């Protein structure tokens, strides 16, 4: 399921900063829930310019938040996204309306259009707002084309606990490392998993928090593997993923140190999943704390090469 932040739910309805900050907190908690279940919350690049309080834009209002809250919000809205306008499906000529109002060029219209094309989409809205209802019914009016209208129904989430309960109900239960293995190979179609790559986890007591962390790492790798254009260059989303997750101060992925590469060359070398007799030196990894687990994969990630996930288990470079 794809989630879309409903910018229409911020419409000058707040009268003071504390009330708006409370709404932002609820929105970010829903984003965190979606992330833990490996789902993206798409926003529009202009979302940061929304005006929640008369005369005060979101970017101004955010400056009054605590440093860590402000940083997390601004990384999402201005850096990480993902932004649905980069991957837009509908165009300005599509007539999309909800409750008599035109919702073309909005997250509501985009989510509805994708739903009509077979995707599973839902909205996440701020509260209180004029969008405190669910489901949201959207009509794609095609009378001008001499065609029948189409109707899309979208769930509209406004509460983190309710969203988490729904995702728990719809997601396959992961109660063991074997479940994680099976689910990952189904869920992440852009990744190639080496045979037995999850086996090193077998001797470790299962921890759902660690499994969720591994799923979050795999979600980023899966997105990165798809973030290339027809010419083989990274898309704008791919560049942001690389910056946010591979090079920033809080990067989730990193390379092994030079000394580790020398001392643990054997441990970091894995049989090539597709080429018998050949090997991959996989020093890049994602970290799972506090259990000191690692997820190793092939590097660099290119458009014309599979991303091989070769190892999930305890840290290999322990001294």
Question: What are the defining features of this structure?
Answer:
9 helices; five-stranded mixed sheet; 319 residues; 18% strand; globular; seven-stranded mixed sheet; alpha/beta; 14 strands
Report on the structure:
By secondary structure, this protein is an alpha/beta fold. It has nine helices and 14 strands. The protein has helices spanning 17-36, 58-62, 67-80, 107-116, 160-170, 177-187, 208-225, 236-247, 258-263, and strands at residues 2-5, 41-42, 95-98, 101-102, 121-124, 136-141, 150-157, 191-193, 253-254, 269-271, 279-281, 285-288, 293-297, 307-314. Strands 2-1-5-7-6-3-4 form a seven-stranded mixed β-sheet. Strands 8-14-13-12-9 form a five-stranded mixed β-sheet. A hairpin with a 2-residue loop joins strand 3 and strand 4 (101-102). Helix 1 runs parallel beside helix 5 and helix 7 runs antiparallel to helix 8. The chain is globular. It starts with a strand and ends in a 5-residue tail after the last strand. The mean pLDDT is 91.
How would you concisely characterize the structure shown here?
By secondary structure, the protein is α/β, with parallel strands linked by helices.
